[in-house]
Specification:
Blueprint: E1 2-3, E2 6-7, E3 13-15, E4 25-27, E5 33-34, E6 48-49, E7 56-57, E8 70-72, E9 79-80, E10 93-95, E11 102-103, E12 116-118, E13 125-126, E14 139-141, E15 148-149, E16 162-165, E17 171-172, E18 185-188, E19 195-196, E20 203-206, E21 211-215, E22 227-228, E23 250-251, E24 264-267, E25 273-274, E26 287-290, E27 311-314, E28 339-342
Parallel strand pairs: 5-7, 7-9, 8-10, 9-11, 11-13, 12-14, 13-15, 15-17, 16-18, 21-22, 22-23, 23-25, 24-26, 26-27, 27-28
Antiparallel strand pairs: 1-2, 1-6, 3-4, 19-20, 20-21
């Protein structure tokens, strides 16, 4: 094994700490596992060669090694433990070996300098928040052996441009791509029975429920979608317009939150509920047309921080029905000095 360019043989005891002094001791002889917290907080560690004898990298083994710039995981490694490389903020290059099977939760969380990730075909699981807040990742390739993408696995990868979901994937957890505001292309490979991107819609849809889980800047919502899921379009700051089809009956929590370029939206007539924070942070939103003759249920922060002085347009004879929307309490539209008027024929 090499540590910062110094060859360390399996027969000696090597010592290292965050100041580079010989204080904390590790015996490397006959090791097959890099144990929990082995190099945790070694902020001056800049390079390491992982030997082929290693089969697993355990929890937080390289946690907060901020000086580490490149990592090559050999083919012998089958698992990377939770938080193993979390907060390795200088990491720019990552090569994952072809023997790898699982990447556990937060394994590479907030590796904010990482620009590209290729998941080998041997990997079946990417854990919760495994690559969360890796805000410089622009390129992601998912292997065709992948079955599980857990909650928030790629949350807030805001520079990610495109993602293709392999046809082997059977589970995508909540908020897996939430906050990926740079996405322009979302595709699901043909043959996937759990998810689809029907009609080349540039969105991720759960096939059995017709819920749109994640949209992109180029999404055209199909008229078979019944719900826009939680955080489906959040943080798409360059989204300026989106057409919601008449098939939609529900708009989820924070579905369009922080879409700061969105100026107007039309709510179809079958929508019965709009979740909390659904349009929160849409600071340019100044026009809402609701076609529903029964006001959809909203929460007190559904329209938090919309543009001041906007207009809500509702069907004729429905102004009183939308009284809750226009309340001045909490963060309803009345708080932002909105006015209400009827649709003119």
């Amino acid at each position: 094994m090499e540590v910062d360019g110094t060859e360390v043989t399996p027969t000696i005891t090597y010592t290292f700490n965050i100041d580079g002094e010989h204080i904390v001791k590790y015996l490397l002889k006959d090791m097959t596992t890099l144990p929990d917290y082995m190099f945790s907080n070694c902020e001056l560690l800049s390079a390491i060669t992982i030997p082929k004898s290693i089969t697993s990298i355990e929890r937080a083994a390289f946690y907060w090694c901020k000086g580490l710039t490149a990592v090559i995981i050999p083919n012998s490694v089958t698992s990377i433990g939770s938080s193993a490389f979390q907060y390795c903020q200088g990491l720019t290059a990552l090569e994952l070996g072809n023997g790898l099977k699982s990447i556990e939760g937060s394994a590479f969380f907030n590796c904010r300098s990482l620009k590209a990730v290729t998941i080998p075909n041997t990997v079946t699981k990417i854990g919760d928040s495994a690559f969360g807040s890796c805000r410089e990742i622009t390129t992601l390739e998912l292997g065709n052996g992948l079955t599980n993408i857990e909650d928030a696995a790629f949350e807030d990868c805001s520079s990610l441009k495109a993602v293709t979901i392999p046809n082997t994937v059977t589970k995508i957890g909540d908020y897996a791509f939430s906050g990926c505001g740079g996405l322009t292309s979302i595709k699901v490979e043909e043959g996937n029975t759990a998810y689809d991107s029907r009609e080349n819609c540039n969105a991720l849809i759960k096939t059995a429920t017709n819920i749109l889980l994640r949209g992109s800047l180029n999404t055209i919502i199909p008229n078979t979608v019944t719900k826009i899921g939680d955080y489906a379009f959040n943080s798409h700051t360059n989204l300026t317009e989106i057409a919601i089809p008449n098939s939609v009956t529900s708009i989820g929590r924070a579905a369009f939150s922080d879409c700061t370029g969105l100026a107007e939206i039309t709510i179809p007539n079958l929508v019965t509920e709009i979740g909390d924070y659904a349009f929160s942070g849409c600071t340019e939103l100044s026009s809402i047309i609701s076609l529903a003759t029964t006001a959809p249920t909203i929460q007190n922060r559904t329209f938090e921080k919309v543009k001041n002085g906007g207009t809500l347009i509702v069907p004729q004879g429905c102004i009183n029905i939308y009284a809750t929307w226009m309340s001045t309490d909490n963060f309803y539209l009345g708080k932002y000095n909105w006015n209400i008027q009827e649709i003119t024929e």
